[in-house]
Amino acid sequence: DQQVKQNSPSLSVQEGRISILNCDYTNSMFDYFLWYKKYPAEGPTFLISISSIKDKNEDGRFTVFLNKSAKHLSLHIVPSQPGDSAVYFCAASSLYNFNKFYFGSGTKLNVKP
Amino acid sequence: NAGVTQTPKFQVLKTGQSMTLQCAQDMNHEYMSWYRQDPGMGLRLIHYSVGAGITDQGEVPNGYNVSRSTTEDFPLRLLSAAPSQTSVYFCASSYEGGSNTGELFFGEGSRLTVL
After folding, report:
1. Is the pLDDT reported for residue A95 higher than 80?
2. pLDDT for B100
3. CA A21 → CA A5, A10, A41, A90, distances in Å?
4. Which of A40, A42, A39, A49 is nearest to A101 (CA)?
């Protein structure tokens, strides 16, 4: 059973608007969360992370929100750009064993010009 | 700086054949890992290593072997390939500390087809 779930396989937004990608997890031991971006035929690349001591982390156009009680995190991209079109994976781990990452199934974002 | 290098990028095997996927990193990272990516499943951890001589199992270790004799290299061996091992394989490395603890640096992937 997947411990990290991304229930939206795809998302389409207009350039300049906000993109919101969602992720849910079931394991209450997870305390570190990351988002990765993946282009076709390339490996995933790190985007942004958040630890469970925070509920928000911001890096330029990217903001990750964490709701521990709901076991839910989201990635906001504002404003969205066509170059943001990619597959986004969320991942979770425990700081006691941060080498074991559990990934969601990914959300394919399409930003239309 | 090459980062994480995987070879081969593409491979076709017949059921029962064996092969090794190579992974090398030049960032002196202590931690290395192998993931497989399947449609609708995301990336799943196969095996990982916290340093030379130390390996451990991930979520889906069956059918795969690993060893870590040097910091740089972490090969993944398929002893007897099965069609269920058709997938895209990613090697990753990481290090403790820094601003993004545990951030994974991925290779470009190796696409394996088992007929």
Report:
1. no
2. 56
3. 11, 9, 22, 9
4. A49
Nearest chain B CA: its distance from A53 CA (Å): 14
pLDDT tens column, B33-69: 999 999 888 899 999 998 999 999 999 999 999 999 9
What tens digit of pLDDT does each residue of B69-80 get?
999 999 999 999
Q: How many CB pairs under 8 A join A and B?
A: 70
| Partners of A34 in beta bridges | A49, A91
Cα gap A73→A110, rounded to integer Å: 20
Distance between CA atoms of residues A88 and A23, nearest Å: 10
| A62 touches B at CB < 8 Å | no
Three-state secondary structure readout of A77-88:
ECCCCHHHCEEE
Q: Taking CB atoms and an 8 Å limit, are B42 and A101 in contact across chains?
A: no
Chain B residues whose CB is inside 8 A of the A62 CB are none
Question: In this complex, which of B4, B44, B94 lies closest to A99 when CB atoms are compared?
Answer: B94
Average pLDDT value for chain B: 92
Bigger pLDDT: B40 vs B20: B20
Q: E strands, chain A, where?
A: 4-5, 10-14, 19-25, 32-38, 45-51, 56-59, 62-67, 72-77, 86-94, 97-103, 107-112
CA atoms within 13 A on the CB side of B82: 4
